[in-house]
Amino acid sequence: MRRDLTLAYRHRGEIANPLVFFLIVITMVPLSITPEPAVLATLAPGLIWVVALLSTLLSLDSLFRSDFDDGSLEQLLISPQPLYLMVFAKVLAHWLVTGLPLTLMAPLLGVLLSLPEAGYWPLCLSLLLGTGSLSLIGAVGAALTVALRKGGLLLSLIIMPLYTPVLIFGAGAVRNAIDGFLVGPQLAILGAMLALAIIMGPLAAAGALRIGVNG
Q: What does this protein's UniProt record list under function (predicted)?
């Protein structure tokens, strides 16, 4: 994980791409739809979540790509260390440089979209749980397409259906908070999804790496 964080720090431009995309898209919404606060407040929960999902997807193709290109991925596969833990460390590093900054940026973008005050904490909590699941699920697709030269489109087709439940419950938690309903059930489901993704995601990604590299 320390190695991946060091490489990410040395290529800060690649880290900034999803964040800049997140900011630009949200900034363009009032210009392209309407600046009316009431309309923006209605769109804000779903819109922020959709753009966060797409921003995460934007950075997934490079999760294992550089290791595959320089041959270090093969060394990881034959290493005596558990592949599960190494994949989990790489995914955690990806989340720290992508998912966590997106979560921290969300309140600022909520202000731009006139998000009601009641929605800020649920937005941050849902993104904190949900972006972890997005990175873990996306790692499986990135592992399956790592040996393909142009696997970005195929990666999107593979994991977008798996992202849908996270999107539904994440945006639903923010919407319920704004409408005055309980957000606990949605956050609990997001937490359960994250727990399942932590258990199953690295295992599936490790198997996909063995298939993709050795196949």
A: Required for the export of heme to the periplasm for the biogenesis of c-type cytochromes.
Instruction: Give me the mean pLDDT over the 73-97 stretch.
Output: 88
Q: H or E stretch including 146? A: none
Sorted by where each begins, the domain ranges of the chain are 2-214
- pLDDT of 174 over the 80 cut: yes
Q: What is the token pair recorded at 119?
A: 């929605």
Q: Is 96:132 a contact under the CB 8 Å cutoff?
A: no
Residue type present at position 138: G
Interatomic CA distance for residues 213 and 215, integer angstroms: 6
- Report d(CA 12, CA 201) in Å as an integer: 26
Residue 183, token pair as written in the block: 């957000």
Q: How far apart are CA 67 and CA 7, in angstroms?
A: 11
pLDDT at residue 151, rounded to an integer = 63
Cα distances (angstroms) measured from residue 214 to each of 77, 140, 145, 202, 204 = 10, 16, 13, 18, 15
Q: Please state the length of the chain.
A: 215
Which residue bears the tokens 């966060």? 52
Check residue 180 and give left, alpha or beta (phi > 0: left; psi -120 to 50: alpha): left
Q: pLDDT by residue (tens digit) across 108-128?
A: 888 888 888 888 999 999 999
pTM over cut 0.85: yes
CA 189 vs. chain centroid, Å, equals: 17
Residues 42 and 30: their CA atoms lie apart, in Å, by: 12
